[in-house]
Amino acid sequence: MRTHTFSIFSQSTKNEKMIPILIIVGLLVIVGIVVWTIYNKLVNAKNIVNEGFSGIDVQLKKRFELIPNLIEAVKGYNAHEAEVLSRIVESRSGGSNLNEVASQDASITQSLKNFRIQVEAYPELKANTQFLKLMDNLSEVENELAMARRYYNGATRDYNTKIEVFPAVLVAKLIGFNQVAFYELSDKKESESPVVDLNN
């Protein structure tokens, strides 16, 4: 009878010792699942940011491919405008990071704006159907590029928010997720509102 009582008592003691171990193992499993879920959500958000940057790159390449055709269309009308476009082609070196790409994009965008203004002085060029088609294509690509920039910035905003909110903020940097920069205008003049004087 004593052995039976001792056996029950020893099993009860073993069970009591196992409870803290099971609690610790359970907590570790829960923490592991939370970290795994956070990691997967951050990987997904980072991939969307990369997709957005890739979309910008595709539109920049489309725009860049249109410029040689514009050069050919303009050559017969004015060598200066053809030279301006040729310099745009030469200046594009395909930046390796966001800041370089944004800077080159802003430079080319400004040059194309100046080109459009200069073209206004040549009515016969504006009547050229090939040139008009190229300019329409360029306008379409510029609109798609603007949409790609907005998409990238939206994806970047979402990603940055995900790594800043609780509980992700506790582990994001530890597992290699850092903030991503927005695609911003490098020319601050473009972001300023123009001053219009209606009194003149």
Commentary on this structure:
By secondary structure, the chain is mainly alpha-helical. It has a single domain (2-184), classed as Up-down Bundle (de novo design (two linked rop proteins)). It has helices at 2-75, 79-91, 98-119, 123-126, 129-164, 168-171, 188-191. Helix 2 (79-91) packs antiparallel against helix 3. The longest helix has 74 residues, at 2-75. The protein is rod-shaped and about 100 Å long. Residues 193-200 have low confidence and may be disordered.
Low-confidence stretches: 193-200
What is the percentage of strand-forming residues?
under 5%
Reading the helices and strands in chain order gives HHHHHHH
Q: Main β-sheet, in a few words? A: none
Overall pLDDT: 76
**What is the level 1 CATH name?**
Mainly Alpha
CATH architecture: Up-down Bundle
Number of helices: 7
Report Rg: 30 Å
Would you count the extended β strands for me? Answer: 0
Distance N to C terminus: 113 Å
By CATH, the topology is: de novo design (two linked rop proteins)
Helical fraction: over 70%
**Total individual domains:** 1
Shape call: rod-shaped
Q: Which structural class should the secondary elements be placed in? A: mainly alpha
CATH superfamily: LemA-like domain
SSE layout and pairing:
Blueprint lengths: L1 H74 L3 H13 L6 H22 L3 H4 L2 H36 L3 H4 L16 H4 L9
What are the defining features of this structure?
single chain; 200 residues; mainly alpha; de novo design (two linked rop proteins); 78% helix; 0% strand; rod-shaped; disordered C terminus
